[in-house]
């Protein structure tokens, strides 16, 4: 937090939650309290948790090998054997959706973490040092922010080539400017605070001051920003895979599943388009609801 008034507001909000939940103890009480106060956030958390569970335990949840083909089951409709039908190669759609959750969450979480890490370093360096370093860094950030996230990710993905690692890097780089801006704005105000002056007075080095005193006070807005951007990174990965620039075969990807089926089979086998589209919509919807709840919890001024 950047000033004492905001710190008091956050502390007062935490005390209010504690008083309201005084009659319950443990994680169950805290969960019930959050469900009552942030029902939409709880729904988003449930959706996100279900996808994480499916991704982690895909070997158990998926009834079939997502890569195994069966020509006899080509374009099979949903049934007891193929819960969500089969694609044109006879591969089980449900199993591919479950394993596709691994790809989407791995790219989403990896790109968000990598983008936030570099954004924190760039923003902290720019805001704390100032001068010509801040001027140069901000001009570079202005250039990067002139392009939308998807456009810049397309450029990076086309340059790096299709692979899981390159997709994470291609999506992470466009996230750096937004994170750097937030960190810089907080750093500019924090570096003039009395506790920073006191640290300098006792002989503490500038690097230690930046990492020990300034950086921890900028983490709350970064948590909010990262949670809010998670859905965007997952949607961007699906878009890149749809265009053939994301995660390549044989990895099952929701975007690639749409790309393979949208043009030829949307009328004859609509389940090949409907179910991947529903999966993408649900995970983005869930992460957005969860991000809004995290924002409200960490910044009471934003509560509706």
TrEMBL record:
GO terms for cellular component: plasma membrane. The chain crosses the membrane at residues 38-58, 103-128, 140-160, 222-248, 268-291. It is a multi-pass membrane protein. GO terms for biological process: peptide transport; protein transport; transmembrane transport. The keyword Transport applies. Residues 101-291 form the ABC transmembrane type-1 domain. Its main location: membrane. InterPro entries: BP-dependent_transpt_permease (IPR050366), MetI-like (IPR000515), MetI-like_sf (IPR035906), OppC_N (IPR025966). Gene3D superfamilies: MetI-like. Pfam families: BPD_transp_1, OppC_N. It is found in: Cell membrane. It comes from the Bacteria. The keyword Cell membrane applies. Keywords: Cell membrane, Membrane, Peptide transport, Protein transport, Transmembrane, Transmembrane helix, Transport. Belongs to the binding-protein-dependent transport system permease family. PANTHER family: D,D-DIPEPTIDE TRANSPORT SYSTEM PERMEASE PROTEIN DDPC-RELATED (PTHR43386:SF1), OLIGOPEPTIDE TRANSPORT SYSTEM PERMEASE PROTEIN APPC (PTHR43386). This is ABC transporter permease. The lineage of its organism: Bacteria, Pseudomonadati, Pseudomonadota, Alphaproteobacteria, Hyphomicrobiales.
